[in-house]
Amino acid sequence: SFSALVSAVHPAFCRNAAGNGNIKEWKKYYNEKAELYFSQGEYEKSAVLDGELLNLRLSKRELETVLVRLARAQVYNGENQKAIATYRKLIDRVGGRPYIYYELAASYEAVDLREEALICYQEAVRRDRNFAGAYAGMGRVYWKIGLMNEALNQLKEAIRLGEKSEEVYHILTQVYERQKNTAMAIQTQKAITTEYPTAGNYFRLGYLKFIANDFEKAVESFDLAIREDPENFEAPLYMGICFFRQGELERSERYLVKSSELLDENSIAHFFLALLYKQKGDLDKAVECLKKAEHYSKSSELTGYINKTRKELEAYSCLLYTSPSPRDRTRSRMPSSA
Question: How far is residue 160's CA from residue 129's CA, in Å, rounded to a whole number?
């Protein structure tokens, strides 16, 4: 048992504690060690000690401390079902403070029990109307289940109350996207990017400007994303597509080639390179890129481009199935644009 282990390591302490019958010393020792292990990320050891503490007579305040630490250790160990049981025990024996319902809700959410999570977030808000994190939790759950108006209202309230986390703004941006409100999505993403100037946020801002057909502004954001993370293939991919849309084929080629070099399985880069080379009249390269695009293509990767690049896709099909032999291909009469 863990008690035996403690006795082996600290025999003098255990002899004194047992001989004197000093339960207070036991509680103090276990609690200090459990807190130390928890602070060091040794959650299994912390949980074992808290289990020992639960075998002792504890005051209501001590019981709350032990059960909260135990539940959090279980969460950090990925044992959310155990954490749920511990939080329920905590509520039954100590009472439900707002933060306890909030943490219980997060554990329910982690195992995809969304209805239970929502009920607990709501209970946290009922007990504390200024609990910004609980409003954010509700907004996140509503977003997951597809109730965008409810999600929007809760996320706005969370932000009003001071919840400024990157996650909240990201979800709010996605809510606006789902509502087809691209202008508000861009405005929200700008706020995130100003506060958190990462490669991912620059890319996301560029992508939103891209789908709004603001290619010049999109290029600015993609360029910043590349500077922050030169090894990521997505920013040069979309930058190349922006230049392609603007008819700047040389610049488009440079970024599309860079993207394909960073990830050879990048079917979209190969596809747009094929369209680009077709426009430049280099049909051999166009066919080569189309073959690579076809080899790596998956429908999910091309879905987002279908409506906006239908002519290019038709040209893609034309090259694959109706072009003359390779020797005569350069003499073929092809359209001048995709």
Answer: 12
CA distance 310 to 48: 61
Q: Is the pLDDT of residue 285 over 50?
A: yes
CA atoms within 13 A on the CB side of 56: 23
Q: Which among 30, 31, 38 has a CA at the least distance from the CA of 14? A: 30
User: How many Cα atoms occupy the beta-carbon half-sphere of 185 within 13 Å?
Assistant: 20
Nearest to 322 by CA among 293, 290, 276: 290
> Cβ(332)–Cβ(306) under 8 Å?
no
* 200-224 pLDDT tens trace: 999 999 999 999 999 999 999 999 9
The pLDDT, as a whole number, for residue 287 is 73
Q: Could you give the C-alpha distances from 338 to 257, 284, 288, in angstroms and in order?
A: 19, 16, 17
Is the per-residue pLDDT at 335 higher than 50? no
Structural element, H or E, at residue 301? helix 299-302
Amino acid (one-letter) located at 173: T
Judged by DSSP in three states, 178 sits in helix
Amino acid at 5: L
Q: Which of 289, 299, 237 is nearest to 263 (CA)?
A: 237
**Integer CA distances (angstroms), 228 to 169, 198, 263, in order:** 21, 7, 18
For residues 310-316, give the mean pLDDT. Answer: 46
- Secondary structure percentages of the chain, helix, strand, coil, to 5: 80, 0, 20
The single-letter code of the amino acid at 303 is T
The overall pTM is greater than 0.85: no
Burial (CB < 10 A; 0-12, 13-18, 19+), residue 300, is exposed
Radius of gyration, CA atoms only, the chain: 29
The pair of three-digit structure tokens given for residue 326, joined into one six-digit string = 């390779």
